[in-house]
Input
Amino acid sequence: MARSSLSAEVEAGARPRTASAAVRPSSGGWALSPPSANPPPDRAALKQQARRDKAAAKQLLAPVSRSISLAGLLVAVAAVCAVVPLVLIVEACRRLSREPVDTGTVTGLVVAAFLVLAFRGLLQVIGLVWAHQIDAGFQLSLRRQLAAKLSRVPLGWFTERSSVRVKRLLADDVEALHYLIAHARLEYVNATVTPLVTVVYLFVVDWKLTLVLLVPVIAYLFALNAMMSPAHNARLGLFNRGEQAVEVTTVEFVDGISVVRAFGQTRKAHKGFQDAVDRYADALSAWKLPMTRIQSSADILLAPVFLTLVVTAAAVGMAAAGWVEPMDLVPFLLVGVGLGASLLGLAYGAQALREGASAATRLRELQRLPELATPVERDEDGREAVAPGPGHVQFRDVGFGYRKGQPVLRDVNVELAPGTVTALVGPSGSGKSTLARLLARFYDVTDGAILIDGRDVRELPLEELYRTVGFVLQEVHLIRGTVADNLRLARPAATPAELEDAARTAQIHDRIVALPRGYDSEIGVDAILSGGEAQRLSVARTLLADSRVLVLDEATAYADPEAEAAVQDALASLIADRTVLVIAHRLHTITEVDQILVLSDGRIVERGDHTTLRQSGGLYQRLWQANEEAMALLAERGTHEELV
Amino acid sequence: MIRKAMALVPADARRPLPAYLSALGVYSVAQAAAYVVLVPLLEGFLDRDWGTASIWLAVMAGAVAIAAIGAYLQFMQGLRIGVGMLRGVSTRLGDHLSTLPLGWFTGRDSAAVARVVVGEVREVLGIFAHLLAVLITSIAVPLGIAVGLLFVDWRLGAAMLLGLPVMAVVNALAGRSYRGADDRMHRAAAEANARVLEFAVAQSALRAFGAVGSGTRALDIALVKQRRASKALTAAAVPGLVAFTLVVQLVFLILVYLVVSWATAGDVSAASAIALIVVTARFIDPPTHLAHVGTAVRVASAAVDRVHDLLEAEELRDPEIDARPADNSITFDNVGFGYEPGTRVARDQSFVVPAGTTTAIVGPSGSGKTTMLRLAARFYDVDTGVIRIGGQDVREMSLETLMAQISPVFQDVYLFNQTIEDNIRIGRPDATDAEVREAARIAAVDEIVERLPDGWSTVVGERGANVSGGERQRISIARALLKNAPIVLLDEATSALDPYNEAVVVRGIRELIEGKTVVVVAHKLSTVAHADQILVVEDGQIVDRGTHTELIRREGRYAQFCRQRDRARGWRLAAAG
Output
């Protein structure tokens, strides 16, 4: 519960356009419930979001903004250079109409036009290449920054997110920034400067014809505004909901296909999908048809052919009346009628800028994520003074909640004596996993403190903390590289003999040797390991790390039923002589541990050893009875004696 | 791209196509005509012959009016085709998805499929609503101007006709080199992203072993390499870009230069020359814009490909005659299967599960046990051999007939975001309320319901997020109980259940398999020991078979398996020494 709401908050409103994000908030089902009717987002909120995005993009790009501005300047010059040759050709035309024709000057103007155009092409290319170079450098430093950040945020951040969502942030959004830096800004500059220079030039030539030329442009803007009527927005909302419904039904169709088919519901699911598609297509027509009617009429206003007609007709009238010189029409025909097209470019550029900006917002959020606070760096002497302790762990008045006002753990006071095993038991949702993870600093406590050998875990440099506390949880992460690389993560200087030793103890040496290249086999390439094998490799790694305190999930022992015994042996050797905190699921495996903590609703309700607790008449006794019952049921038809 | 996009338009949506293409034709020709008319118009205008100018202006206005009508019509017809395409393709995608083998779906990212169905199809819509018109007019209008000019000044017209293919060729070449560089750059970026992602996903491992504060060295090397690649590739894209910009401008200025030289030589009047230059500017305009829609074309063409890919995924064919099984037995006859060509997950498997008996499959993880269940349920079709149910090849039964025989209880329990009752009722939609409650009672789902705030009408959340793993299993058992099919395919869960859920699940399953034909992938000794037949599978092959007693006596792999399981069961977690 806390998990989903926390992550929802982080991503709230951040990315309405991707498929899966749009799928998330809706509660639609293919068979029965229609998708919930989300009201269309109101304009003020959208505007505010746009402002936030823009600010975020500015902050994120601050390190390169000066170079981008310079590249932008280059493109601005190039944009001016795009207009100049046409102006030169206008001049050539003027000279052509004057008798006698000065052939040399006219030819010179045409050549000059070519040179300026070539120069402009050069500037454009330089601007683009430069922007790409800036981008390449920026991406490197951004990815470095993100990597550094990722290694400092609480580990809980990762457990809350699927890797798909992390990927979206680190790959798709970084990519969107590439477009922002290397293309969008420059295109935007180009699309702004060109019409501006054009209009100024035309005003200088003849203000009356310029005004005539601007009439269709202004009419276009009015038409666009007319298009955005409340009725249009309502239809757009209907369309968006229709689209979302198709997404939701597709996702459920794909995810639930085995159920749908196994229970013969294909037709029904299919009908749900078909209905969604029909509604979607209807909504699309209802939205797009009236819009296209206006838009296609409006688009004509900006078409060069229409602008040519308008300005020529006006010129004919005005010239006949003696208000303008016929030659003054030429610049309008050569330069002016392209105005509409460059304005349309402005609209496209703005869209790309918005998308880049919203990616920037999400990356800024990541950058601003609170990091695990680390103590002020002390000098080398100070650090050496702390000798490794025996691994004595204390939880003092520990409280924790993922969100304010929703505590997951309360008033936890526990002591783990060096070299003892403590098991956490309790119903699912009682907080036992959270408690164990706090020790490995997946999160920081909200109240109280956790001490290792008398020192607050928050005071320990992260390197030292993770040297002291190891963990073996259900998910195993092997990194790309060889088997040896994975083992050496724990101790970079380990000798081959040490690696082998750890692997032997973890019951995985024989398997490694059987791989095509032994310890040099690459994970995922020629070392394809089963769940249990990967688990044992991670145990070997933890053995090499040799941390004094260990957080363990008992479920790792049977994640791979066929390798259960081997993993169990590996774990048994791992926990020897360490201070161990274990999350327990099956009670009969923990009957011999030193201390059992029974959690219920975030509090420790009972503690003691198995013998005491099982007669206490409390929660543990009830859990134990259920356990016994399950074991009896399992054994009912195949007892130990009967089997062997 | 255009041909592939057209292939997506269903026949009935193609009706507006002639109207659309004619409108586009009218639009292009009328535009070209309007520009060509500009020559006599400007000649008259610049010579202050208002009468001539006015007449040609009227002609031009007529051409523009026709062009406007053409533009409007092509817009509307294009949209109609697009909407028809969207309706047709979405329907086809839905139809197609429901005929794909279940295996196609395993491990598939549903959001990615939804992106194709909605996002990519919308991109394809854009082709008809907008892009195609831009592409066609960009070529047709200059061509029309050139041809029209043949009648006004044939030399310029001919020169333009020569210039067009030159620009087209350079455009294609430049586009290709730029796209190539851009693609490689994207790939380098994707590689770097993959490294960062891996770094993120493996954070707990990396951090546990001291990699705190900065990226690992390997990551940094990959990132630096990406920057180098990106820089190099940018440089590689430059020649193409330069070539294209220069050639278009060169063509333009050569044409202008030609006109100027004719004028200075006295071949054409100054007014005509100016008019011709203006028209030349209009002639060169569309090709320049063609370069700008390059990205849009790429995106759209990728979208078309992805929609086609989805439509071309091979479907499960329904037989012409729906064979009926004679009884509830299952037979594997020399079955061979691999998920990818060249790999073998099942080899030469032959066995019979007589009706009403239980067969347990045991073997190391990754030996292909679950695949055998999936093959029996026809998630995939076998590569070699035959699977028969009640004596009939499963491929000769319709999916409805086959699925009516089978209740699958697999490990990944999918719950729809509906109420618990709805989720159970999927087992048999026409079941009475009492039957649903009875199934729920046996699988102890009624206890879950009591605990939940809205009881039976509690919605389970997306993918069943509001219920625990054990509870999901209980709901899936209730579903199967309600369906009550004669064959049960059971993949025993390996996930950690608390003692209570474990007991309840065991009880529910026992009820479910009573009197049924059962194939179970078993991890619990209790399940295995009482099977009528045990198959020991290793590396996709059945290496041993028999009853528990027979196999134990044989002292083979099975006996070893039993000893290990037994030892595991007695395991206690405690500090050694």
User: Anything to note?
Assistant: Residues 50-97 of chain B form the longest helix (48 residues). The beta strands of chain B are 330-337, 346-353, 358-362, 384-389, 392-393, 406-409, 487-491, 517-521, 533-538, 541-546. Chain B has 20 helices and ten strands. The radius of gyration of chain B is 36 Å.
